[in-house]
Amino acid sequence: MKIHNISSKNSVLNTFIAEIRDVDTQKDTMRFRRNIERIGEVLGYEMSKTFSYEPKEIQTPLDKTTTDIYENDLVLCSILRAGVPLHNGLLNYFDDAENAFISAYRHHKDNPEVFEIIVEYLACPSLEGKTLVLADPMVASGQSLVATYEALKPFGTPKEIHLIAVIGAKEGIEFIKDKFPEDTHLWIATIDEELNEKGYIVPGLGDAGDLAFGVKLQH
Predict the structure, then answer these.
(1) Average pLDDT value for residue range 75-88
(2) Cα torsion 210, 192, 175, 34: sign
């Protein structure tokens, strides 16, 4: 797996990351969602540099010109619900992409510190020969990304796979490394050191889904 940690070089991305982490700025849920969306735009731009391009002739009001246009056939797939703002950011840049949505959540049965990933809903076009872009804001244990990938396999074999994430823990990234094809790309805004005993990223930012859409009832 090829890992691209975008925060390894300073840019305006640092501002968006700082604001989604800050407990005071997090109180503005609209700003939180918009910052996740903007991070998706930055990561999508960086990802686009690896696409295949072909020249296209364009007629302007004054003359003709040629521009290289990406030719990748994209499917954007986000993990509900936390992945929606990230998905919107990617869709802002790749507005002609097909879309897929999947629900994946932590199910705590008896022990609050032990969980399994449950996938209940999936809507997806064919992935055969296409570029799959799988978006999940938080790579904590990495189990949700792997469970999602396994659920998508019946829809065909992608030509390329790109993973898009906002924050990941080193442990989770290490976990997913050998669960995807070797040439998979991970585009991530920043990487944190560890998980706590409940499997949350530290320092992280808390629960991305709750911060974006409100606290949910557990079941």
Answers:
(1) 94
(2) positive
Strands 98-107 and 116-123: antiparallel
- Report the first-to-last Cα separation within the chain, whole angstroms: 35
Residue 219 has pLDDT above 70, yes or no: no
CA 115 from chain center: how many Å? 22
Q: Which amino acid is at 185?
A: H
Cβ atoms of 128 and 114 closer than 8 Å: no
Cα 197 from Cα 114, distance rounded (Å):
9
Give the chain's largest Cα–Cα span. Answer: 69
Task: For 43-159, list the strands marked E by DSSP.
Answer: 53-59, 64-70, 74-80, 98-107, 116-123, 131-135, 138-139
Local confidence band at 172 (pLDDT 50, 70, 90 cut-offs): very high
DSSP secondary structure letter of residue 170: H
Q: Are 125 and 75 in contact (CB under 8 A)?
A: yes
* Across 156-180, average pLDDT: 97
Which run of H or of E encompasses 11? none
The band of 104, judged by pLDDT with boundaries at 50, 70 and 90, is confident
Tokens matching residue 191: 């990487």
CA atoms within 13 A on the CB side of 172: 30
Please check whether residue 129 is in contact with residue 115, taking contact to mean a CB–CB distance below 8 angstroms.
Answer: no
Please tell me the least confidently modeled range out of 17-31, 36-50, 51-65, 117-131: 117-131
